[in-house]
Specification:
ATP binding (chains A, B); 24 helices; ATP-binding (chains A, B); Herpes Virus-1; about 700 residues; homodimer; alpha+beta; 5-stranded mixed sheet; globular; tRNA-synt_gly (chains A, B); coiled coil (chains A, B); Signal recognition particle alu RNA binding heterodimer, srp9/1; cytoplasm (chains A, B); 28 strands
Chain lengths: ~700, ~700
């Protein structure tokens, strides 16, 4: 963790300490309040205890002030929030066009956001890294599937029936709300009142913890109990299920109902056979896909974290339901992860750090493949620039699991809004393939060859058709059909009965019961060798919300630099820095010519640019003519790790060097023009470090106007 | 052009020659038919000309055979079709899972296709190349915008009213058809009849040429004229306008109408101000965006070429409407392009090759920016692997232009279906920004500083309000309002009148006419300096249909290798090859261990793989245990340019080399294991050529089973 990111995450220990102090102080306050109440209970008592009442009054005032200041401190130390100034941070995202409400010029439509140039470049980089980390390194089979989906697919997957949220409506004006979010907001607003009673505080803390598991009944009961009203102050309807899928008719007749997919996974499931075939019918293997998904959220809030259209990157790893081992498990078994298991949550315990191997031994994680993807997800998120202390894996409670999941661990990232689910790693078992097999009436199985052929006993039924036709005439056909349709279990029973009682009864199509004896019917046992069998594969699914990951990485990489003077400071521009890893940063380099109209400077600038392009290093040129300090700030704002300045020495043929500035330390070196692109390429590709680079090139002294402060 | 691609495109000359021969032969045939008709006109004549009739009969039979075979040859030489066996080609796309109808297990929904692993990888590569070629090389501002769009946006852009096709309905069963496609299919089926009369052939050829420009009236008239019926043989309705946008309500109340965007461009237009600001208020600049677009096609045919969901990559280059010069124009002015101008089409001429500079001089292309993007588009398409002879730029006829375009050139690629529009390069002038300014009531202008301040005269109106209130009492206010609202032209006229006649009349709100004289009203002229002005920028838009480009590149790179023997030949697998450029190929390399269960082979294979991964070279491993020839074929099928074979020499420590095979030539070299990844990286990144590599490493002799034939 670098210096500037230290204070953003608070420790659980400090928070717990503050909680205890706060509660003790509240208790002392309550005792004093009780005492003063008793003392003031009658005119006589008041008169008798005058002095004590005065003292107590002073004490109470002091205690109340103490409770208030402790509450503030306690809230600030919340380990479940990232401590950044969100107003300033949002200001940065807006000022540098990271994110814009879509169609803002027409007034915003809630839940839709566009990415401006820097965020768009970050997104491309995150997706490239994802493909490198998952698809290419693991030889996954990536497919590209459409968003428009005909209804039968989501009927089979269960989404038409069960992909719902609970909605309540303002009975007067028709405004819609998500019942659970409304209840949660109510809890939050009550809990933030420092004078809330301990009883109500405990009650609402418990309610808040269990909201995700409430059904429509519980939600309705709580809304009535706490008399929660709409924003306009009106009564609310009972909660009811509302489907989150956008629907649109496909084709000109309007007869085919279509949905915009709410997840990209189904594209892989319906193509299972093609992928299995492409993989040479070998198991296990993983499919992967990247694309847009759509959810018609009831009332999207929290800015970028709950939106109606978003990019998902999903992996479906198909394996044998009885063997979820992973060939590369050993490579991750010593990775340390912070886990918040179902049991820990129920017991009110905090997340605990353990190795993947320990988590498997504890039976926190149930199989190697699930464990493998939890570890690989952590490695990916850290490469994206997530703070290690701001990452945990939380297991779903059995009540909050999606309808298709048998187990699920979310990678949650800490933000100023709290812990946010960014990756869901679910064991979908055989649910989806079984559902599609049933609904589409196709075979979606894999074939397994037994390690050695298995022997099993089967019972053949032998009928003397000639004798039967003499005895039963026209009914013979119906009898034969009935006997042949008997399963192995029935045949065993019939065989025993025939042997013990000499005859058995069969019921033919028209309901008539016919007796058959050993003359016409016998059963013989036979040994059969089978080499293998078909089975429905199980699925482990890591599903990445790309937009959420980007948002969290931006919060995690954000800090404010202490300024140390210079001409620009008065202008009130905050010295924000995004310490994004070079892999993710929107541009790897910026080029700033001190003079932007001078021919010589333009020549050197073009020379530098052309070398950067040859090394496929993305860059921005800033020829705005503003002060160099101001321009450095603009680069820091969008997280450009390396800035090249073309100055008077650069245009002096006897020197021909440029300044190279590192974003986080503000350190500057002088590097020859013809080497600069190579140096940056090596830094960006992790072939060298900044410290090693510093040893190779002379340091550049900063002029006053270039100084924008180092560290905090 | 490489050897194998030569025969796929026919020359216009050869086709014209064949056309002439065919027409001449038809004429001779007609003359003979006329003559025999006359000779057979009466019994006497028949009797008298018996011998001549016999001779003529023989001659006619021969001529008819000649017409038939010439027609076949003529059709094969069609320069407007790519000559590949489409059935075989489609078989390859299916066999190797390039493309699958979406949700095929549920029966296909027309117009929706998924990309399997190889096509998905090709798509990622094409988009990366696009970003490199346009966004990064040109410092464009890429944005990422949502698909869901509220109605007001597409009302402003004109899509709600005008983004329509003409539809006809089967009046009996309600089946829908696109009127123009129905007429086109009718023309095609008639024209393919060798016995069609010359008159009808000429007529339908003309109709086909103008279909794109027909409105509902002309389409209806032709459908009636040729008695075109539905597939079921029923009568069709009159053509009517059908909007191609998918609509879906946004939010839970159902009150906000949304559309899935039919183009991605609007995301850039509505964000114009943000981009202009991000660019430091400097012009010109270009926005870019990549994403899904949706069109609810009436009855999608032609497989991958007309689909309901597709990926677009669009550039919007904003420039001054009076100055569409491009700073980098000089770098492309000598590029030779094949242009089919509006004039050439009207005159029935073929496309002509010319340099960009010539096309500008001829006024075929009207401005530098339009010309620049035509050239850059060509360079991009050629890098993607398009055949130079299979690319042309066709200008839209004024009747077929989209409602927003003032000029448009399509990059068309030759396919087995004919010439297909893959990139539209439109001059959208100021249409979109003006529309959004009007509808959203916001300022979407750029500011230009004049090279020197401009002086202009304005006329001020001076009123003596004190005198007026004495003269006009309560009406004074209305008079002042009226005078102040006069424009500069009116003020000039009033001034002259007041000077010549001593008084002027003004009409106030209630209709009363009031006379004013010089005592209360005077006009004075004033010189004003203006430094610049706001203007609505013009837009040049290159819009790339990524799916179409991929399909065409696959057709262009496809050929069938002549086999020269070997064990696999009997199995009837066609020896297809996709000669994709390495940049675009789904994987750059394949690794084939001859033994897939032997520890030593596995060790070497893993060593090779690990080196490839370090060099970020994408690869597939084929351990299927099939013959090496068979496995080479599989690699050729999906266009893998380089194949590494791990054989007995590879596991021999004293040798430790692998075989490197080049896809198009089938040539094989022996390369040391520790050098193989570097060699491939250099080949793929164009740092060395295959010929240079051949000089550095010894040739590997092929064994019989590895031989799959070289060239044709």
């Amino acid at each position: 963790m670098s210096e500037h990111q230290k204070d953003k995450v608070s420790s659980v220990e400090r928070f717990n300490q503050l909680s205890t102090t706060l509660q003790d102080t509240k208790k002392t306050l309550n005792t004093a309040l009780e005492e003063i109440k008793v003392l003031k209970s009658s005119v006589e008592s008041k008169e008798q205890n005058k002095d004590r009442i005065t003292d107590l009054g002073k004490e109470i005032t002091a205690l109340q002030a103490q409770v208030n200041s402790l509450t503030k401190e306690w809230r600030k130390a919340d380990p479940d929030r990232l401590h950044i100034d969100r107003k300033e941070f949002d200001g940065l995202l807006n000022r540098r066009s990271f994110v814009i409400p879509s169609f803002e010029i027409y007034g915003q439509t809630a839940g839709l956001y566009d990415y401006g140039p820097p965020a768009c470049a970050v997104k491309t980089n995150v997706l490239n890294l994802w493909r490198q980390h998952f698809v290419l390194s693991e030889n996954m089979l990536e497919v590209d599937c459409v968003c428009l989906t005909p209804e039968p697919v989501f009927k089979a997957s269960g989404h038409v029936e069960r992909f719902t949220d609970f909605m309540v409506k303002d009975e007067a004006n028709g405004e819609c709300y998500r019942a659970d979010k409304l209840l949660e907001e109510f809890c939050d607003s009550q809990l933030s009142d420092p004078n809330i009673s301990q009883t109500l505080s405990d009650e609402l803390t418990l309610v808040k913890k269990h909201i995700d598991s409430y059904g429509e009944k519980e939600l309705g009961q709580h809304i009535v109990k706490y008399n929660i009203l709409s924003e306009a102050g009106n009564k609310l309807s009972d909660p009811y299920r509302y489907n989150l899928m956008f629907s649109t008719p496909i084709g000109p007749t309007g007869k085919i109902t279509g949905y915009l997919r709410p997840e990209t996974a189904q594209g892989i499931f319906v193509n299972f056979k093609m992928l299995y075939d492409y993989n040479g019918n070998r198991m296990p293997f993983a499919g992967a896909t990247v694309g847009q998904a759509f959810r018609n959220e009831i009332s999207p809030r929290s800015g970028l974290l709950r939106v109606r259209e978003f990019t998902l990157a999903e992996v479906e790893h198909f394996c044998h339901p009885d063997d979820k081992s992973h060939p590369k498990y050993d490579s991750v078994k010593n990775v340390v992860v912070k886990l918040l298991s179902r049991e820990a949550q129920t017991a009110g315990q905090a997340a605990s750090e353990q190795t993947i191997q320990q988590a498997m031994a504890n039976k926190n994680i149930l199989n190697e493949t699930h464990a493998y993807f939890i570890a690989r997800t952590q490695l990916f998120l850290l490469e994206c620039g997530v703070l290690p202390t701001g990452l945990r894996f939380r297991q779903h409670l059995s009540t909050e699991m999606a309808h298709y999941a048998s187990d699920c661990w979310d990678a949650e990232l800490l933000t100023s809004y709290g812990w946010i689910e960014c990756v869901g790693i679910a064991d979908r078992s055989c649910f989806d393939l079984e559902q599609h097999t049933k609904h589409a009436k196709v075979d979606l199985t894999a074939y397994e060859l037994f390690s050695e052929p298995k022997l099993s006993t089967t019972i053949d039924a032998n009928l003397d058709k000639k004798k039967m036709s003499t005895l039963y005439g026209k009914k013979t056909g119906a009898i034969i059909k009935q006997v042949n349709s008997l399963g192995q279990v029935d045949r065993q029973a019939y065989k025993s009965k025939l042997e013990s009682q000499g005859q058995v009864n069969v019921t033919i199509d028209d309901g008539e019961v016919i007796s058959l004896n050993k003359d016409v019917l016998t059963f013989t046992e036979k040994q059969v060798r089978t080499n293998g069998r078909n089975y429905v594969p199980s699925v482990i699914e890591p599903s990445f919300g790309i937009g959420r990951i980007i948002y969290c990485v931006l919060e995690h990489s954000y800090w404010v630099r202490k300024t140390i003077g210079g001409a620009d400071e008065e202008k009130g521009v905050p010295r924000a820095v995004l310490s994004l890893p070079p892999t993710i940063a929107p541009y790897k380099a910026a080029v700033l010519p001190i003079q932007h109209n001078d021919k010589e400077y333009i020549k050197v600038t073009n020379q530098v640019i052309s070398n950067l392009t040859k090394n496929t290093i993305s860059y921005r040129v800033d020829t705005s003519g503003q002060s160099i300090g101001r321009r450095y700030c603009r680069c820091d704002d969008i997280g450009i790790p390396y800035v090249i300045t073309v100055d008077s020495q650069s245009v002096d043929a006897s020197d021909a060097s440029v300044t190279l500035r590192e974003r986080d330390s503000c350190e500057q070196l002088r590097v020859p023009i013809h080497e600069i692109a190579d140096v940056i390429a090596q830094l960006v590709n992790h072939q060298t470090s900044w410290n090693d680079t510093k040893e190779k090139y002379p340091t550049q002294k900063q002029t006053a106007s270039e100084q924008v402060g180092k560290g905090k």
